[in-house]
């Protein structure tokens, strides 16, 4: 039912309710049974035990579980326990993250008002909001949160703050008249009040027409339930890597068993040898290192005013190609500001943004002050015809009241005007009304002189004005004067400035104070032009994102003209860029939107469904989408996007719970810093994947070649596990702390389809791995041939050569180009990690109780010279090449 189209009497008739009596109490239970309780439902939740088990279905986790089984079969119970601990820690992290993310609907429920005032059997009573039913007549007052969707039947200057639901930056004035048009979106249904929004001014009476899931808020809740979660690029790549490693491990095990049995070795021995190779193929510490690297990135981002709620979000930001940003409060200050004044037939320009009282007035390029004709009077009138209050807290100004009234107060303070309550007394007030579109106050000063001040829409005040105030005093308002004022209004409108007119009229004590008299024959003073200004740092952030190949798109509930002006001011909208509004989106199919989406930079007058449609269209074009916002209306699109970003200060709890990243300072520029961090983290993940897998390839090949050459095993399983879990772990983690390379924000976003081994990484892993394996095998063969009876000595040389080759190779992994392009001491964490791993190696070699466990023996200085020469060869050979 389109309740906004019906007259008040028709609404009451349809719902079978008398406006003066309310619902009979005996009907309430029947209606609740018919329409349902006034609560937001949620889909059936997954049992906690099943949610926990789902954390172990990832391929890399399966690899780790296989490694645990293998370590147990080999009798290495300490290693098996260590791997199991890693698996459980990862599982618990994922479990708690999912539980936290699914609190969105619970937060939506909290937005429902706890108590409502309803009329039943001619008596006003207070009831819990969940007990409201369709047809209830309810009373709404300033400060109330609206408990259900309501058709307004009586309004006394009521305004509702709906930005959290519709994205509209200004409070919406409510009226009672029916709206005849079809397909009117909620932000334009000015005779309706919606569940979860806040009344900022006035009062009203209404009839409840929608409760629970049948409200606009309920539709958003439904969208959030139906919105599917998507896996991140990093999760996809690690799953892909897990599959590869499983295949390699199984293939190697089968190959070794077949070759060994063919050569006449016992099946059991060959199976253990194959298992050793499988252990070598699996980088047991990789998922843990990925988690640690992301966690460290999270800590760095907190210092940059960004809180990460989902670890994978850090990396996903690095491949974002589109940022869909809400305008109000994200790109703008969410603080109305007077930017221009039309006075004495001239335009004055006002500096300063937001509620900061610092600012000046300029006529062209000449600064003017309170001595400029009529300026002080105009600002005083704006301050007197006003309900807002300006306060300061910790050196920062904020407005208590309507943002438009707040803008007028700030404009007055910029020339030093302050309200003196003992100097002026309000005799009478005629409040603002959506039909009247004006507000008037009758003022009496200390000298008992009275005058009326009226402010409102220019098209309302101008016909009621007979005079205008010029530099030489009050003059008769002629046709050409009205034409000049109309021209000024149009000029301001083209700049997307909201215009408010101010007028006054002197009164005598004998004058009647009725509305008809005091609001006619006014003296037109001037026009205020105001706008919600862009944040200062956003323009530079958008430019940096553009240089990084990232498109910024503005999505707002505001009017097209306002959105376009802000976008042009921010240099977001290119010359041929398109601007679409909600009506155009309604008429476009998904396919049609997908065809033009890459040319669109601004979406205006949009609904939550539109935002979801926009995000999906970009995703279908292959983009990785970051969606920012602060209101409830943004939550479904934030949840559906690849990376959801909410505002920490102005954002609703619902939006924060649906997002992956929360900006503590509500600053769009922080997103740019987050993208920089995300890109660097992904590059660092590539570095330690390169390091770990090249090391593992070396381990695999040294074992495989030895078997093919019918040599004894150069490494025993416990040595391989030691290398994978201990020696490799610290340097790999230190790679995760590497600083970004200089050009990280001048590269295009990587494709989400880019594989783990893209950009030559696969070749680097295999080529370095082959050489590491060959030098380790050569060192073993030289030692073993000289002393065939001392296998432990040969295995110690091989073990030490492998570890040293890896510790030297780790510095090669810091750059995509060459080991010589970066200073090794830039990353002191890596230097310390290598020293720590070297010390652990020395302990295993020279501490006698451990020699038995790890099959090692003492090495001489001559042995170390051999080891250093062989272990340096891989890095020296590849140090001068970019491949």
UniProtKB/TrEMBL annotation:
Name this polypeptide is given: Calcium-transporting ATPase
Tell me one GO biological process term. potassium ion import across plasma membrane
* SMART domains, per the entry: Cation_ATPase_N
Q: How does it sit in the membrane?
A: Multi-pass membrane protein
- InterPro entries attached to this UniProt entry: ATPase_P-typ_cation-transptr_C, ATPase_P-typ_cation-transptr_N, ATPase_P-typ_cyto_dom_N, ATPase_P-typ_P_site, ATPase_P-typ_TM_dom_sf, ATPase_P-typ_transduc_dom_A_sf, ATPase_P-type_domA, Cation_transp_ATPase_P-type
Family recorded in the similarity comment: Belongs to the cation transport ATPase (P-type) (TC 3.A.3) family. Type IIA subfamily.
Reactions catalysed according to its record: Ca(2+)(in) + ATP + H2O = Ca(2+)(out) + ADP + phosphate + H(+)
Which keywords, in A-to-Z order, does the entry hold? ATP-binding, Cell membrane, Ion transport, Magnesium, Membrane, Nucleotide-binding, Phosphoprotein, Translocase, Transmembrane, Transmembrane helix, Transport
List the source organism: Lentibacillus populi
């Amino acid at each position: 039912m389109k309740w906004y189209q019906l007259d008040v009497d028709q609404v009451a008739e349809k719902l079978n309710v008398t406006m003066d009596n309310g619902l009979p109490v005996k009907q309430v239970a029947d209606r609740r049974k018919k329409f349902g309780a006034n609560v937001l439902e949620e889909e059936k939740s997954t049992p906690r035990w099943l949610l926990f088990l789902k954390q172990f279905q990832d391929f890399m986790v399966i690899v780790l579980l296989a490694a645990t089984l293998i370590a147990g079969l080999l009798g290495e119970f300490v290693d098996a326990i260590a791997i199991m601990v890693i698996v459980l820690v990862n599982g618990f992290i994922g479990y708690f993250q999912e539980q936290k993310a699914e609190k969105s609907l619970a937060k939506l429920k909290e937005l429902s008002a706890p108590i409502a005032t309803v009329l039943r059997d001619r008596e006003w009573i207070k009831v819990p909001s969940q007990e409201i039913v369709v047809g209830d007549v309810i009373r709404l007052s300033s400060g109330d949160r609206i408990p259900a969707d309501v058709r307004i039947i009586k309004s006394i200057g009521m305004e509702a703050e709906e930005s959290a639901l519709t994205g509209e930056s200004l409070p919406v004035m409510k009226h009672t008249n029916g709206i005849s048009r079809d397909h009117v979106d909620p932000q334009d249904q000015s005779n309706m009040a919606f569940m979860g929004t806040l009344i900022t001014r006035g009062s009203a009476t209404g009839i409840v027409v929608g409760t629970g899931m049948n409200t606009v808020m309920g539709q958003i809740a439904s969208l959030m339930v139906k919105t599917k979660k998507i896996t991140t690029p990093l999760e996809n790549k690690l799953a892909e890597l897990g599959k590869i490693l499983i295949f390699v491990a199984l293939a190697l095990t089968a190959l070794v068993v077949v070759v060994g049995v063919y050569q006449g070795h016992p099946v059991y021995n060959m199976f253990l040898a194959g298992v050793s190779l499988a252990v070598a193929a699996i980088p047991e510490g990789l998922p843990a290192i990925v988690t640690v690297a992301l966690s460290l990135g999270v800590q760095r981002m907190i210092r940059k005013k960004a809180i990460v709620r989902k670890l994978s979000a850090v990396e996903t930001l690095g491949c974002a190609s589109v940022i869909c940003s809400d305008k109000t409060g994200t790109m703008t200050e969410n603080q109305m500001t007077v930017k221009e004044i039309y006075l004495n037939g001239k335009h004055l320009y006002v500096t300063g943004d937001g509620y900061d009282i610092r600012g000046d007035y300029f006529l062209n390029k000449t600064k003017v002050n309170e001595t400029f004709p009529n300026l002080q009077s105009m600002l005083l009138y704006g301050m007197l015809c006003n309900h807002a209050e300006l306060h300061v807290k910790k050196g920062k100004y904020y407005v208590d009241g309507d943002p438009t009234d707040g803008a007028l107060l700030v404009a007055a303070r910029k020339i030093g005007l302050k309200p003196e309550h003992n100097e002026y007394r309000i005799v009478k007030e005629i409040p603002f009304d959506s039909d009247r579109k004006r507000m008037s106050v009758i003022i009496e000063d200390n000298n008992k002189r009275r005058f009326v001040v009226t402010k409102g829409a220019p098209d309302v005040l101008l016909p009621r004005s007979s005079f205008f105030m010029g530099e030489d005093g009050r003059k008769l308002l002629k046709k050409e004067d009205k034409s000049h004022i109309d021209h000024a209004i149009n000029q301001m409108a083209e700049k997307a400035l909201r215009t408010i007119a101010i007028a006054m009229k002197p009164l005598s004590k004998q004058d009647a104070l009725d509305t008809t008299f005091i609001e006619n024959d006014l003296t037109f003073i001037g026009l205020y032009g105001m706008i919600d200004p862009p944040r200062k740092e956003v323009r530079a952030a958008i430019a940096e994102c553009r240089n990084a190949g990232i498109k910024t798109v503005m999505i707002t509930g505001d009017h097209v003209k306002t959105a376009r002006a802000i976008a042009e001011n921010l240099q977001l909208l290119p010359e041929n860029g398109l601007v679409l509004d909600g009506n155009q989106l309604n008429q476009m199919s998904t396919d049609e939107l997908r065809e033009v989406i890459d040319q669109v930079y601004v979406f205006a007058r949009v609904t939550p469904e539109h935002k979801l449609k926009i995000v999906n269209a970009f995703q279908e074009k292959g983009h990785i989408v970051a969606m920012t916002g602060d209101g409830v209306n943004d939550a479904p699109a934030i949840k559906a996007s690849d990376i959801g970003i909410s505002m920490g200060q102005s954002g609703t709890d619902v939006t924060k719970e649906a997002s992956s990243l929360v900006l503590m300072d509500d600053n769009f520029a922080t997103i740019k810093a987050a993208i920089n961090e995300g890109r660097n983290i992904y590059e660092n993940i590539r570095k330690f994947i390169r390091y770990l897998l090249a090391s593992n390839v070396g381990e695999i090949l040294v074992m495989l070649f030895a078997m093919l050459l019918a040599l004894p095993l150069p490494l025993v399983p416990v040595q391989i596990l030691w290398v994978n879990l201990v020696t490799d772990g610290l340097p790999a983690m230190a790679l995760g702390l590497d600083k970004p390379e200089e050009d990280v924000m001048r590269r295009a976003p990587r494709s989400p389809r880019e594989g783990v081994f893209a950009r030559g990484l696969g070749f680097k892993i295999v080529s370095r791995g082959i050489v590491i394996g060959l030098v380790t095998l050569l060192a073993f063969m030289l030692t073993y041939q000289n002393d065939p009876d001392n296998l432990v000595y040969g295995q110690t040389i091989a073990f030490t050569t492998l570890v040293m080759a890896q510790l030297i190779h780790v510095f090669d992994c810091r750059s995509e180009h060459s080991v010589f392009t970066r200073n090794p001491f830039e990353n002191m964490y890596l230097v310390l990690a290598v020293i720590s791993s070297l010390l652990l190696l020395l302990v295993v070699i020279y501490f006698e109780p451990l020699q038995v466990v790890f099959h090692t023996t003492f090495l001489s200085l001559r042995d170390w010279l051999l080891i250093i020469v062989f272990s340096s060869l891989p890095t020296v050979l590849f140090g001068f090449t970019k491949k």
